[in-house]
Specification:
Blueprint (H helix, E strand, L loop, with lengths): L1 H24 L1 H7 L2 H15 L6 E4 L2 H10 L41 H33 L1 E3 L3 H13 L8 E4 L6 E3 L5 E5 L5 H16 L2 H14 L4 H23 L4 H17 L14 H12 L8 H14 L2 E4 L2 H4 L11 H15 L8 E2 L7 H19 L7 H6 L2 E5 L9 E8 L9 E8 L7 E8 L4 H24 L7 E3 L6 H5 L5 H9 L16 E5 L4 E8 L2 E8 L3 H5 L10 E7 L1
Helix pairs in contact: 1-5, 3-8, 3-9, 3-12, 5-8, 6-7, 7-9, 8-9, 9-11
Length: 605
């Protein structure tokens, strides 16, 4: 999970760097055209976006489907990614027949991968950067408190109260007099304090100082500075983010000056600038996370020029909205709408001739002969009640629509390109809530090699189809169907026992055993098995010449945020919890290991 967050941050930092560069290059134009407060809003929007390492996903309009068709063939298949075969979960093996682990009960992890190392380095850097600044701030505060005295009463306190009432500041800010500071400052996030140097200020100077610092408090600039610091901490490796914080702090001072000087004439502005110049002349160092101003000569000149300039500037609401839209689009994932979504409602089932229908019907009878499903026929051929007929029709359409969402390279394409149908058993008013979804596989192969795919459906709740992938059956092998069902039943009982042992509530999960499961299709998780297997290879104690991803029993949580994989053998029961990133996030990941990262493992002998 840490690796996933790290690479989201890196990607976001790179994307935002484009906007930051454009903003810095146009800084003179921004300063000349827009008020300082508008620029503060801009820097704040950038900082907040930098603190959210997630991207939105937008589907392009219908013409995107054509792009998707053109690019689908260019997408790397599992074999091209270094795998021996396509990642399908069709065959269900008995749990006792595969000794996958020869390790003791405790899993130990080997050396960390390069991605994990980068993620760890990023986290250490972010924490150290933040703690260093917070530590320096706390040290300064304790040092200043030890060398300060609190002002109680007197003309200075009366003046502060008067200005506080004028500015409608309800909070009574304590005032410290400290001989260790060079200039006035406001500091303290939850308990803001006004600290003054041990200098004899005139009444006019005190008035301007109090107005300036109370304006900072009223504007909540201390909170804003913390947002900039958090953005710097998360993106400590990006110099552009540090430049952003520096420019933002400068514009906070300019915006505060604008607040104090709003509606004032040139004489008032000149007097304010004179007092500010006297203060800046004595200031030699700054306390982190406080209101202060120490900058280069050019920045100080720009600040005084801003105070003298009385020309109206734009508030920049329209410009800010344009920037926000550009920022969202730049840091979001745009992808073509799936072709099946564009043509929703259109039937994708190929037209079958009467001869093909008869041939498929005969093949179905031969494949199911001697099995527990003998006698199952397409529901249209049965004298069902209208209620049962409607239930079967709705289930068939619901599952066929679901298969349209499956990856075109998966086995689901067999159900899309060949005639498929729902077969059930029953007559008249008998309640029918389950059946077999069937299709003839590879209809173009010689007759002697014909076979059928079978998927058992529980459609007692059509909105929540329960699927068991029976697999591929050849004519005259009806007993194979019964063996598959028995194996799956034994497997399920073992899974339930393991889930109880590990306190896993399976009612909160959906099965992800095969490519036919709704959870796999809805999440486009066709690489789930390969991703987990590649990660488990990095763990000690596994004999992978005896272990295959088809033996994994996985579940995906109903909120599609995470999943769990359960595996049992003679040496113990093993449970691995993995993250389920969004489809857009997975599309940007380069390795199988990063598709569904494991974040916790448990085992019991």
């Amino acid at each position: 999970m840490l690796e996933s967050i790290c690479f989201r941050v890196l990607r976001l930092s790179l994307q935002m760097s484009i906007l930051l560069l454009l903003s810095f290059l146009g800084n003179k134009w921004l300063t000349r055209r827009f008020a300082a407060q508008a620029r503060c809003f801009l820097w704040m929007a950038f900082s907040i976006r930098l603190l959210i390492p997630a991207s939105l996903s937008f589907a392009l309009p219908s013409w995107g489907a054509e792009i998707q068709k053109a690019t689908e063939a260019a997408l790397p298949s599992a074999a091209q990614m270094g795998q021996a075969e396509a990642p399908v979960f069709v065959d269900v093996l008995p749990m006792g027949s595969t000794a996958g682990f020869a390790a003791p009960a405790e899993i130990s992890y080997g050396q960390i991968s390069a991605g994990e190392g980068i993620a760890l380095l990023w986290l250490i850097g972010a924490v150290c950067f933040l703690l260093a600044h917070v530590g320096i701030h706390v040290f300064h505060m304790r040092f200043l408190r030890a060398h300060s005295e609190i002002v109680c009463g007197g003309e200075q306190q009366d003046l502060l109260e008067q200005i506080r009432e004028e500015l409608h500041v309800r909070r009574n800010l304590p005032v410290w007099i400290c001989g260790k500071v060079d200039s006035p400052m406001l500091t303290g996030l939850f308990h803001p304090t006004l600290i003054l140097p041990r200098t004899e200020f005139s009444q006019e100077q005190r008035m301007f100082i109090f107005r300036h610092e109370l304006a900072h408090y009223k504007r909540r600039d201390l909170w804003t500075k913390w947002v900039f610091l958090l953005a710097q901490s998360v993106h400590w490796f990006n110099p552009l983010v540090h430049i952003l914080a520096k420019k933002a702090n400068l514009d906070l001072e300019n915006a505060c000056d604008d607040t104090v000087l709003k509606g004032k004439d040139r004489l008032y502005r000149k007097a304010y600038g004179t007092v500010l110049l006297d203060v800046l002349t004595n200031q030699t160092h700054a306390v982190p996370l406080s209101t202060h101003f120490i900058g280069r000569k050019e920045e100080m000149i720009g600040r005084f020029r801003n105070m003298i300039n009385t020309a109206p500037k734009k508030k920049g609401y329209g410009f800010l909205c344009c920037v926000l839209v550009g920022m969202v689009l730049l840091t979001s994932t745009l992808y073509p709408a799936p072709a099946q979504a564009v043509s929703a409602g259109a039937s994708s089932q190929p037209k079958a001739t009467p001869e093909e229908i008869a041939e498929t019907r005969a093949l179905l009878t031969e494949c199911l002969k001697g099995s527990m499903f003998e006698g199952y026929v397409p529901y249209q051929e049965l004298p069902l009640s209208q209620e049962n007929y409607d239930r079967c029709e709705k289930a068939e359409q619901a599952y066929r629509s679901l298969l349209l969402k499956a990856d075109a390279r998966s086995i689901a394409q067999e159900y899309r390109k060949n005639p498929s149908f729902l077969a059930v058993y029953g007559q008249g008013e008998k309640d029918i809530q389950s059946g077999l979804f069937c299709c003839q596989a590879n209809a173009d192969i010689p007759e002697g090699n014909r076979k059928m795919h079978f998927i058992w459906l529980d459609f007692s709740d059509v909105s929540n189809l329960q699927v068991m992938d029976v697999g591929t059956i050849y004519p005259g092998r009806g007993n194979d169907v019964d063996e598959r069902v028995q194996e799956i039943t034994r497997q399920w009982h073992s899974i339930e026992e393991a889930a109880t042992e590990f306190n896993i509530d399976l009612s909160q999960y959906e099965k992800a055993f095969s490519m036919m499961d709704p959870a796999i299709i809805e999440n486009q998780a066709d690489n789930l098995g390969w991703s987990l297997q590649e990660q488990l290879k990095r763990m000690r104690g596994y004999q992978f010449e005896q272990f295959h991803h088809r033996q994994m029993t996985a579940f995906i949580k109903k909120d599609h945020t995470e999943g769990v994989m359960i595996h049992m053998d003679r040496s113990g029961t093993y449970v691995h919890y993995f993250e389920v990133p969004t489809i857009a996030e997975r599309n940007q990941r380069k390795t199988l290991e990063s598709q569904f990262p494991i974040f916790r493992s448990e085992c019991k002998a």
